[in-house]
Design a protein that fits this description.
This protein is an alpha+beta fold and about 325 residues long. The chain has two domains: about 180 residues, Trefoil (Acidic Fibroblast Growth Factor, subunit A); about 100 residues, Ubiquitin-like (UB roll) (Roll). About 15% of the residues lie in helices and about 30% in strands. Strands 5-4-1-13-10-9 form a six-stranded antiparallel beta sheet, with no helix packed on it. Strands 15-14-18-16-17 form a five-stranded mixed beta sheet. Strand 4 and strand 5 form a beta hairpin. It comes from Oryza punctata.
Length: about 325
């Protein structure tokens, strides 16, 4: 059995993220993927069989950063709601200990947050493929605070939990298959609003609708405003409401989680919460936004459909087979 020292002494395997824009993370030997939960704050692992928002929520945008006295490469993983995969900050006395914390989606309010900065570390064992390059591989994800991302295989709950801790005795629950998600050839439509449907009315009768404030700003133009009370979760209705207020509809609806968070196109319905939603509208002629930046945004909009799973995949099928065999041009 490997010691804690030997695991920490392994070389980083950051090649799996080299030049990669979007990934899916699957638990090793388990047909379960890391998802950003619809509440906008928590994460879980589950199958892709539900389709729809589940596919969007299983895709993570990759941002590379370099930090530390000795410059070290890390990645940030940004989810469908613009927040970053992480966990609560670890007090110094609890770093690299066995204390377990629930993983979460976090805002990036300061430039460097150790709990959202990840390194890929090589795995042990002859049954694990070596992570050589950006085509994918199996790795441990180790944050700057000294903790590992763990997939908990509990059958007592419908949605299985994700945690972080410094305990590396059971390495198999720390293994994650990193799979590159290539952009698809089509641009997905926003979810259709069902606010006036009979089914929606029946649901409303049983469950009070969510109400929240929406604050919006136009990138580069300084125009800003509020929707003081928005009812429901429909992103299509938000777009229509904003177009009516502003008098134009040629914008990309984005969210930004924190001062240093990147713009993330909002392609799914709003989080299932009553938190104030902060929206940035990016227009094609926005000063300071090059065509490359806009193209990157559209790439993100096109990333999700390629994750559609085949029928009844075996438990040990690689995620690469789920996203297809398309090669990048």
């Amino acid at each position: 059995m490997e010691t804690s020292y030997s695991i920490r002494a392994r070389r980083p395997s950051m090649e799996v993220f080299q030049g990669v824009e979007f990934v899916a993370l699957r638990m090793w030997r388990c047909n379960s993927y890391l998802h950003a939960d619809e509440d906008g704050r928590s994460v879980y692992h589950g199958s892709l069989r539900g389709g729809g928002a589940s596919l969007h929520n299983a895709v993570w945008a990759v941002e590379e950063v370099v930090a530390g006295v000795v410059p070290t490469r890390y990645v940030l993983l940004r989810g469908a709601y613009g927040r970053y995969l992480g966990s609560p900050d670890a007090p110094d006395r609890e770093r690299e200990c066995s204390c377990s914390f629930e993983a979460a989606q976090r805002d990036r309010d300061v430039l460097e947050i150790g709990a959202i900065m990840w390194r890929a570390i090589g795995c042990s064992g002859p049954d694990v493929p070596v992570a050589r390059d950006s085509r994918g591989g199996v790795v441990l994800l180790h944050d700057k605070s000294g903790r590992y991302l763990r997939g908990n295989k509990s059958f007592l709950a419908g949605r299985r939990g994700i945690s972080v801790d410094g305990d590396i005795d059971n390495e198999t629950t720390l293994r994650w298959e990193v799979v590159r998600v290539p952009p698809s050839q089509g641009r997905p439509e926003l979810p259709i609003s069902i606010e006036s449907n009979l089914a929606k009315n029946l649901v409303t009768a049983c469950f009070p609708p969510l109400r929240r404030q929406i604050q919006f700003v136009t990138a580069g133009a300084g125009a800003a405003g509020n929707i003081h009370e928005f009812t429901g979760r429909s992103v299509q209705l938000v777009r229509e409401k904003l177009a009516g207020i502003l008098g134009y509809d040629d914008f990309t609806l984005c969210v930004r989680a924190g001062l240093h968070g990147r713009f993330t196109p909002l392609l799914i319905n709003l989080p299932r919460s009553q938190e104030t939603l902060h929206i940035v509208l990016v227009r094609p002629n926005t000063a300071g936004f090059t065509l490359f930046v806009l193209y990157t945004i559209y790439l993100e909009m096109m990333a999700v459909p390629s994750l559609a799973p085949p029928p009844s995949p075996p438990a040990d099928t690689k995620v690469a087979e789920l996203v297809g065999s398309r090669r990048e041009g």
